[in-house]
Amino acid sequence: MVVAMAQTQRDNWMASLPDSMPVCKVSIPGTHDSGTAGVRFPMRHYACTQTMDLSEQWDAGIRFFDLRPKLEGGKLKIYHGPANCHITFEEALLILKEKLELSPTEFCIVMTNSAGGGQTAVDMTMELINSVIPVGMLAVFKADMTVADIRGRILFIHRNTPSRGVDAPGVVVRGWPGNGMSRKARMVSSDAKSAELWAQDYFTSGNNDKDAFLSSKWDNMYRVLRAFSDADDVVWCINHASGYTGTGVRTNIKRCSDYINSHLEEFLNEQSGPIGIIPMDFPTQELIDAIVKLNR
To answer: What share of the chain is helix, strand, coil (3-state, %, to 5)?
Structure first.
């Protein structure tokens, strides 16, 4: 059984990580579509994946954030599909910047994925990051980077490739599987440093076979959990717990998260090795604490 952490421990849980620890071996609780707490009726059932806002997620111990900017009215706003999350990308960045300033022992990873606006939105995403986040707070990537390399900084992982000449802070992912899994994706920086990435993002079956999808989703996630825990090589891992059952008006995100999160928490009670980055929908505090405690 997982013993709850004190709030002071959650605020600075990375303080106890050894400086020499490879970042790819840190078990990091994350959220999928992190900005969706602001989605309003009637889209909440179809698009809301979080009840905590970004500040509350940080305070709960989350250190991986999935942000999806869409260009609308000249601004980058966070969306999930067609749903407006009622927070701008700049506001989201400023929240994380302030949290890091208050807790310099910590670091976080932000994954961006354009929700609309074409190449202009992708390029604006990079430019906004570079204008809002100080250079000293931008993590410089290398495959075997350590905790000391990234404390007080943000590592950006981008699912979209910017135009030639546009500086992409962090890394761009090549070969993201999309509704599947791959051990052949790569994270590549602007100065050509790269790392192998295992990515599992199996999020729907495309129809309404609820039970079959849930079982298959967990099987895929479990296989990656076990393989990564035993991996000796320098390899990064983003293993999504998120997904949804059904289609159309029967789309149900909460049903999937209840099933997968309960199986994940059960697994963590017996786990001791690293599990990489775990983006989740509606994570409980107990589940976040259980992932954090793997690092101890």
So the answer is: 40, 25, 40
CA angle 130, 135, 138 (to 5 degrees): 85
**pLDDT at 2 > cutoff 60:** no
Cross-strand pairs, 186:
174, 196
Return the CATH fold of 7-289: TIM Barrel (3.20.20)
Domain locations in the chain as residue ranges: 7-289
Q: Are 278 and 291 in contact (CB under 8 A)?
A: yes
Contact 69, 115 (CB under 8 A): yes
Residue 140, Cβ neighbours under 10 Å: how many? 15
Which one-letter amino acid corresponds to residue 258? Answer: D
How many whole angstroms separate alpha carbon 96 and alpha carbon 100? 6
Distance CA 159, CA 99 (A): 24
Angle, vertex CA 192, rays to CA 190 and CA 193, nearest 5: 105
- Could you give the CA distance from residue 44 to residue 135 in angstroms, rounded to a whole number? 36
In the predicted model, what is the mean pLDDT of the chain? 95
Strand-pairing partners, residue 280, are: 31
Q: Which of 222, 213, 219 is nearest to 243 (CA)?
A: 213
Question: Any alpha helices (H) in 54-209, and if so which ranges?
Answer: 54-60, 89-102, 118-132, 147-150
pLDDT in tens, 5-17: 777 678 899 999 9
Radius of gyration of the chain (CA): 18
Average pLDDT of the segment spanning 64-77: 98
Cα(54)–Cα(95) distance, rounded to whole angstroms? 7
Taking only the tens place, the pLDDT of each residue in 191-225 is 999 999 999 999 998 776 788 999 999 999 999 99
